Design the sequence.
C-alpha cells in the first residue's frame, strides 16, 4: 500500500508565501509527527506534501490512503483534495483543528475524521484500517506526553522556512482565553525533561524554537527544564505570557539556558478588551516595564496584537504604531480577531448573529469574519492593513533593530530578517472574495 500525507494550506492566500518567508516562517512539526506515528512496514511508500511550499498532484501516483491535516482557513482546500483522491479510489482521513472543531461537517468530505491530537488517534485509526474496520470518527483529547515520538523531520521539506528546528516541551496552557483554539484541540501535560533534552541533542543545532503556547506556564517545570538545558549551550526562543516580565528568577534562568527572545501575546492596549475575552494579565500600563525588564535580561520581545475587540475604537487602533514605538518592542505582529469554530468566542458571536460568513478560507486572521461593535468589518480590514504598513516603515523597522538587545550580537541578523520579512508579509496580495 501507498500513503500520502498532506498539510493543507489555504490556496487562496498568498501571505507567508513570499520571497522573504524564510525569514519568519517556522518549520511545521505536523507532517513530521504524523510520519513518525505510522508503524514501520505498514506502507510500501509514504509521500509527504507541505502545501506551504509544494503542490498536490492527484495523478502522480495512486495512493491507498491519504491523510490530510487542515486548520479552519485551509478546510475548503482539504475538502477539494479529499474529493479528488476519493474519486481515484483512495481512503481519505482528515484531521487537524477544523476536524476537531467541526467533525460533523468534515465527515461529509472524507471517510474518517480524526479529532484531537494525532499521537493517540492516528495509531488507533491505522490499526483499525489494517484490520479492515476503520471507524468514521476518532476523538481523544488526553495524550500522554511521555509517549511523544521524535518527529521525522528529515521526511519533510524545509523549503521557504527558517532553518531553525522547532520542538515542543508542553502543548498545554493554563489560560482560558475565549478566542484561543488551543484548548479545543487538546489537554496536555509537559513531557519528561530527559526526553526533551535528548531530542534537543539529536537536532545537532545551535538554535531551537519552542512551539509551546506558554513555555513558562508551569513555573517549576520550566525552571527544571531550563537548568537541564544550560550545559547544551544552545540559543532558543519561545512563547510566553506578559507576567514573565515580573519574574526575575525565571528571566535569569531563561537567559542562562540560552533564551534570547520571547513572543508575548499582549493582544491589546485596552484593559477592557482583555477582560472581555478572559485574558488573565490585563495591566496594559505595565507593558513598557515588562518589556524593559526582559531587555535588561538580554531577551528580545515580539509583541502580538489583535484588532477588533468589542472595546476597540478606530482611534485606539490607528494609534497602535506610535504606542508600539513607546513600548520599545523588537518585533511586532498583528491579527484581526478571528472567532474560530469550537471556541467560546465563536459560540457567543454566532448566537448574537455577528458571524458574517462561513467561508472558512477567510478565517486567516487577515479579514474580519464578524460584525465589530465600533466600526464596520470593512473599516477594520482597512485599519489592520494601515497599522501593519505604518509599523513597518523603514524608519520604525531600523529603530527596532538598532535598539534591540540582539543588536550587538551575531544573532541580531535574525531580528533584522524577521522585521524585513514582516514588512513584506503579503497581506495585501491575498485572495479577495468576489
Sequence:
Amino acid at each position: 500500500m501507498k500513503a500520502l500525507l498532506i498539510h493543507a494550506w489555504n490556496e487562496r492566500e498568498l501571505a507567508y508565501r513570499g520571497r522573504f518567508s524564510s525569514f519568519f516562517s517556522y518549520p511545521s512539526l505536523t507532517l513530521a509527527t504524523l510520519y513518525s506515528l505510522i508503524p514501520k512496514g505498514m506502507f510500501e511508500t509514504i509521500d509527504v506534501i507541505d502545501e506551504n511550499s509544494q503542490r498536490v498532484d492527484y495523478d502522480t501516483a495512486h495512493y491507498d490512503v491519504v491523510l490530510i491535516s487542515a486548520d479552519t482557513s485551509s478546510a475548503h482546500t482539504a475538502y477539494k483534495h479529499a474529493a479528488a483522491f476519493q474519486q481515484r479510489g483512495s481512503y481519505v482521513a482528515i484531521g487537524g483543528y477544523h476536524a476537531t472543531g467541526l467533525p460533523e461537517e468534515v465527515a461529509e468530505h472524507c471517510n474518517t475524521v480524526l479529532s484531537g491530537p494525532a499521537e493517540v488517534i492516528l495509531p488507533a485509526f491505522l490499526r483499525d484500517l489494517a484490520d479492515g474496520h476503520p471507524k468514521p470518527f476518532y476523538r481523544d483529547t488526553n495524550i500522554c506526553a511521555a509517549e511523544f515520538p521524535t518527529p521525522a523531520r528529515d521526511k519533510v521539506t524545509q523549503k521557504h522556512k527558517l532553518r531553525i528546528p522547532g520542538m515542543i516541551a508542553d502543548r498545554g496552557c493554563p489560560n482560558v482565553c475565549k478566542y484561543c483554539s488551543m484548548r479545543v484541540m487538546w489537554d496536555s501535560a509537559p513531557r519528561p525533561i530527559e526526553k526533551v533534552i535528548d531530542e534537543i541533542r539529536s537536532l545537532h543545532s545551535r538554535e531551537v524554537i519552542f512551539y509551546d503556547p506558554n513555555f513558562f506556564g508551569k513555573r517549576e517545570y520550566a525552571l527544571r527544564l531550563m537548568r537541564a538545558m544550560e550545559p547544551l549551550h544552545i540559543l532558543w526562543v519561545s512563547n510566553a505570557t506578559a507576567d514573565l516580565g515580573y519574574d526575575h528568577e525565571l528571566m535569569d534562568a531563561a537567559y542562562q539556558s540560552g533564551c534570547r527572545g520571547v513572543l508575548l501575546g499582549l493582544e491589546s492596549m485596552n484593559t477592557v478588551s482583555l477582560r472581555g475575552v478572559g485574558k488573565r494579565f490585563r495591566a496594559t500600563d505595565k507593558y513598557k516595564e515588562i518589556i524593559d525588564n526582559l531587555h535588561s535580561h538580554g531577551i528580545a520581545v515580539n509583541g502580538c496584537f489583535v484588532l477588533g475587540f468589542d472595546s476597540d475604537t478606530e482611534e485606539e487602533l490607528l494609534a497602535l504604531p506610535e504606542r508600539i514605538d513607546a513600548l520599545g518592542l523588537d518585533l511586532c505582529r498583528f491579527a484581526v480577531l478571528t472567532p474560530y469554530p469550537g471556541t467560546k468566542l465563536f459560540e457567543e458571536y454566532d448566537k448574537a448573529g455577528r458571524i458574517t460568513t462561513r467561508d472558512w478560507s477567510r478565517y486567516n486572521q487577515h479579514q474580519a469574519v464578524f460584525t465589530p461593535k465600533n466600526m464596520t468589518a470593512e473599516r477594520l480590514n482597512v485599519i489592520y492593513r494601515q497599522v501593519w504598513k505604518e509599523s513597518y516603515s523603514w524608519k520604525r523597522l531600523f529603530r527596532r533593530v538598532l535598539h534591540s538587545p540582539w543588536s550587538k550580537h551575531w544573532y541580531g541578523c535574525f531580528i533584522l530578517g524577521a522585521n524585513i520579512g514582516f514588512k513584506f508579509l503579503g497581506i495585501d496580495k491575498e485572495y479577495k472574495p468576489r
